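Think of the structure tokens as a kind of shorthand, similar to the way a musician reads notation: each symbol stands for something richer, in this case the local conformation of the backbone. In the example below we present two proteins back to back. Begin with the first one, reading the sequence and then the tokens, and try to describe in your own words what changes along the chain.
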Amino acid sequence: MERPGARWWVPERPTLDTLRAAVDECQGCELYLEATQGVMGDGPEDAELMVVGEQPGDHEDREGEPFVGPAGKLLDRALADAGLDPTAVFRTNVVKHFRFSGTRGRQRIHQSPNRVHVAACGPWLVAELELVRPTGVVLLGGTAGKALYGPSFRVGEARGRRQDWPSDIGGAAHSAYVPEWVVPTVHPSAVLRSRDRDEDYDLLVRDIRVAADALAGHC
């Protein structure tokens, strides 16, 4: 299957508005065929913190905005509980089109993107990074972590610890702009699925607070 990658659709001098318009035209991989629309990141262009998840979900695909479903609402609560203003955070995903497998009632069932989809979408994340230029990045879940650090990345081993931006692994590592630090943690959707939701939510807040402290100059 031909996957030319998103680089042919990324504007030469992007703004958030031109990125949002251009992602709807992207045919960098086959995911555009079934998705309703591309979903670019959203938030202040001068945000100090960028949160990077996996891909749009069913709600995001229909509405065209990132993190507007149940996981996004939980993320907003966790950001606030960690001492951050959710409206000041730029949030996006490593893959911009929703991948799903079948339906359950009216809801389409999420299917994780694979490495070729992440690689094809890499130029979109690079464009967002170079436009927003965040001080730090919070990675939500394994797909986002692998996009930067490669297939050996494990959330459980890395979560809640400040790390350097990778120098030579992952499509987004080729960005000309390099954030000062990265903090990995679990994706909020994993908390929603957890049998120990309260405990896992507290751990998510703890991890995000590492980023909040870094922004405040506490670390």
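Once you have a description of the first chain, move to the second and do the same.
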Amino acid sequence: MAECLRDTMESSRIIRYDDEFIDRFEKLKEMIESGDGPALHRFLIENFGFVFKTFQYYAKHIAEGDAQDFEEADEETRRELMRPLSYRQYRMIERSFSVWEKEKEDVIWSIWDFLDDNGRIYGKKAMSSAEVGGCSLVLEQVYRVLAHDDSRPDQ
């Protein structure tokens, strides 16, 4: 699955909510529910780590006016790419920055909640540039919590 994802990312910088992405998203929920922090950490890196690279691409190329993938996209996709974050997604970013030990599980769930966006993921076609940036922030915080999880073996 990760190899297929690399091929997709090399051919297009637009993250689409296609069947493959939705499958990974639904598997994410299972992984979080399992409570296996190290397995979840690996799963996130292998299946969602590309979001960081996409964010870097957007930050560089959009700022330089050189976002070929955006320009070549159809009108509906361009509208999707420019969609702002929902209020709920802003709240998930805020929740992911929680530093309280008792809220560690909330931080971990924030990535699924951010992507789910109250069920709106199933009606979206592509991840907007705002969502790519927000998702990067949330993922970073989830990684931070998982890296400091007491159940992780010392490395």
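Compare your description with these statements about the second chain. The CA atoms of residues 42 and 49 lie 10 Å apart.
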